[in-house]
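Dear support,

I submitted the protein below through the web form. The confirmation email said the job was done, but the results page showed an empty box. After a refresh the structure appeared. I'm attaching both so you can tell me whether what I see now is the final result or a partial one.
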Amino acid sequence: MTTVSPTPTPIPTPTTPDAQPAMRLRELVFGAACAAAVRAAARLGVADALGESPATADELAAAVDCEPQPMRRLLRALSCYGIFAETADGEFVHTEMSRLLREDDPHSLRYISLWCTEPWTWQAWPRLDDAVRTGGSVFHELFGKGFFDYLHQDAHESAHVFNRAMTTSSMQSALDVAELLDLTGVSVVADIGGGQGHVLASLLEKHPAVRGVLLDLPGVAAKADPRLREGGPLADRAVIVPGDCREAIPVEADLYIIKNILEWDDDSTRRTLRNVIGAARPGARVVVIENLVDDTPSMRFTTAMDLMLLLNVGGAKHTKHSLVSRIADAGLVVGEIRPVNAYLHAFECAVPG
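What the results page shows now:
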């Protein structure tokens, strides 16, 4: 029997940007409370505990081993932002956003939500004024070592969350990239700094005549998508090359994909792009895929990512102009720029003839 969820009671939602400025600012400065509430729900597994039928706060509290009254307060706070909704009789139901906190949702943002609210973030964000003043990361001063060294040496749970978040994000966007790119005339595609190779795997699945190369750091390449590794269904068309794209790119291909790795310092970006030119034959395609901080539909998201990069590694997201400028300065010919999805853009480029 199909259960029909009662219609949720209309509840006050956060005020719009046109609302009274003083109230809007009050809401914004309490933004940490919203982020913490999302993190709490994700860690407790509240969204996973709530099925298709409405449930009371008491029932959800029992399901995740919490106290009922604090659970009601958490759900009430989240409902103000459209994460869960309360029905007329005081039960709670899913919304489009709360479903994204379920681990089994195909578009799950559970690990992204955890990653963006990991313990180190609560120590780093209060130092944003120092990062703005100096223009550099505050991470080493806070933790005595660089960001990735800290993750893998001192914060193993956070490193696990990071890996899950990056894997989830990469797998979701890989399908969008595969749908966007036309591989007509392409025999070999190279995914440079491609992580576990989800983009490459998606492209090879869609184009059975194409062969592929994945290049990333040895520790990353060793954990490549199982579809690409020995015994995987795509292994006979894939080569995994351990290496640092900032040092050398020993790969010849018809199409090079560079996705979400040009957010380091300018020198590293310049070296990576020039290494591609050095490896490629004249006329080869290069597709650079990045988030942009001047892309209106996703600016609240991308500008927040940009500030986090400043804090943790001293990096930066690009504007369309800054990325085009760096690509052109490296010697590539920039062509069409197209959206991949709501938060990524693809810059179609070519190696000069």
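Response: this is the final, complete result; the empty box was a page-load delay. The radius of gyration is 22 Å.
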